[in-house]
Amino acid sequence: MVRDNPSITTENLTAVQLMEIDSCTRCGECVQWCPTYDARNQDPGLAPRDKILRWQEYMKKSYGLRARLFGPKQVPEEEIEQFKEDVFDCTTCGMCGTVCESGINTVELWEAMRANLVKRGNGPVGKQPMFVKLIGEYGNPYMADPKERLSWVPDDVKIEDKADILYFGGCTAELRQKKLAFATARVLNHLEIPFTMLGEDEQCCCSALVRTGQYEMEDIARRMARKNVDGIKAKGATKVLFACAGCYRTAKIDWPRLLGEELPFEVIHITEYLDKLIDEGKINWKQPFDNKTITYHDPCHLGRHVGVFEPPRKVLRSIPGLNFIEMDRIKENQRCCGAGGGVKAGIPDLALGVAETRVEDALAKSPDILSSACPFCKRNLCDGRDSVKAESLEVEDVIVLTAEALGIDLSDCEDQAR
Amino acid sequence: MAMEYYSGISDAMRITFVQVMILATIAIVIFLYGMYINLKKWGLGAEGYGQKPSKGSIFTFPKTLAYQLSEDGHGHKQNIIVTLVLDILLQRRIMRRSPLRWFMHITIFVGWMTLFLLSLLMFLVELLHMAHLGIGPEPAVFREFLGPINDLFSYILLTGIIIAIARRLFIPRMREATIAYDSILLGGLTLITVTGFIADGIRNGTFWGFGIEYPYAPPAALFHVIISLLFCIAYIPYSKYIHMIATPLTILANKGGE
Lengths: 418, 258
Known about the structure:
The structure holds 2 protein chains of 2 kinds.
Chain A: H1 15-21, H2 29-33, H3 35-39, H4 48-63, H5 65-70, H6 77-88, H7 95-99, H8 106-120, H9 130-138, E1 165-168, H10 171-175, H11 178-190, H12 207-211, H13 220-234, E2 239-242, H14 245-259, E3 266-269, H15 270-279, E4 292-296, H16 310-318, E5 322-324, H17 343-346, H18 348-363, E6 369-372, H19 375-387, E7 394-397, H20 398-405
Parallel strand pairs in A: 1-2, 2-3, 4-5, 4-6, 6-7
Chain B: H1 17-42, H2 60-70, H3 80-89, H4 92-97, H5 99-130, H6 139-170, H7 172-177, H8 180-204, H9 217-234, H10 243-253
Helix pairs in contact in B: 1-9, 5-6, 6-8, 8-9
């Protein structure tokens, strides 16, 4: 008798991850906290525990006792397609992993499932497949000529050819939200910290490919990571500063994995660096804010994924004229802005729904400014703010606020925020 | 009537050493086969990030787990002792989320594990007694000694089970989300506990015997033993009971979790 092939493979899942799937106790804690489950009117298919249960069933049908005795039982293709939709309807914010009583590393699990499904021919979704072509061809997801990467640099900004510190701008700050790159470069110059940049040799960090399960496609993510790491080495840098939480997370966690080696430099978020400078008494604020109330949104990639919670708060608290208040859900319990995991590009309405809720979290505290430390968060929170018509709420990055408080003029920056 | 059997291995009446040993062996074989299948299934995964899937060797999973345990990992590098004590034994992750759920789970965990260990201990004492080695306490005396401890942990277990059932019945969110996968776990646990109380009640003539006459005590005990062996051991790898093995391993592998 010819037996059917299993409907699913175990590609991209580790042996430990397959075991983790069996460890779910279905306590339901993840369901209570999932931002996309909430934004989709509590669609049961989006509940993290439901996704785990379904994969567990697919594994049983394909490789369990019955499958061993009588051959695999097929999983209908429509079911797998629906499963794909549900796995991609997730910002990979990691809230489910934080509250998981079984300690399942859910972010890694969702990304592994996505990569598995992509290889199978299911997914990614929306505009996400374009990432492979765009990043592969242009080295960035915005179809921009690499020469444009430093087109924002004003005459007064001094970038060294080689230095101990390298600022990795990232595609979004260099090609879209240029105010962020402006602010970072001018702050470093103002503080007399020599730094270098990769310029047109900089490649996309490939966060978008990793998050959407496409990191093995055409080997782009690994090749880009290699080029970036080699470029940074060639610049003589031992410390690399990131003002983008997405790039930071990818460099810190994903690059070493993609390359199978430790990075020969330290990966530092700009807020961590500023925190250290504040401790050393090297920052003298010159332009106090006019008694503004500010709150801070933890980017998932900076906070929950890596554990950087205090430095951005410390920077904001130290700026004169800012009255810092916290939202109810902060730090490891923070609610995602909705932009991560490729959702902004793949499922924009879902991204907006989650952003609206996060903006409402902020509005409940009546701040003048909602700050964050990630260009993606900023962009999506701006969209959420506009959608709930909270025009008076300013959404701004910590580094931009830092620049302003240092008296740095950013008015000459052409910010292509969208 | 004098006590004629203890953990179920004397030749008294219809419950014999041979019967229990055969049942225990069958349960263990079924358990081991289930774990073999699980190890083969887990062993289809890769040994590390970005690597090709393995071919289902039973050694792949332990090897991958050992590697993950030794790896520095990201974010935190929690000490293994801290993980074992705080996250696995004391179940800190549940406590952080819900003190009531923690109380429910810890009572079930402590009650279940202690009763299991006490049963093993009683079994060992009777084995030594039957082997006429002249070591170990008299089974009757030892059983009397264990009596109050058994009672205490039985009630601790029962408390946890009652809370678990009440949550499933009276909290709408829990009730609506309950599926057969969950019910079988709780049903099995309840059955083992209740049959244990009844078997003990008949044997000792207490409230839990519900007035059933003593001759029914051995079959009641045998039934309890069979149910316990099936659910406590044999059924673990095939059901939600697998979390008793997989959850501590997951917490270990992820160094206490995020």
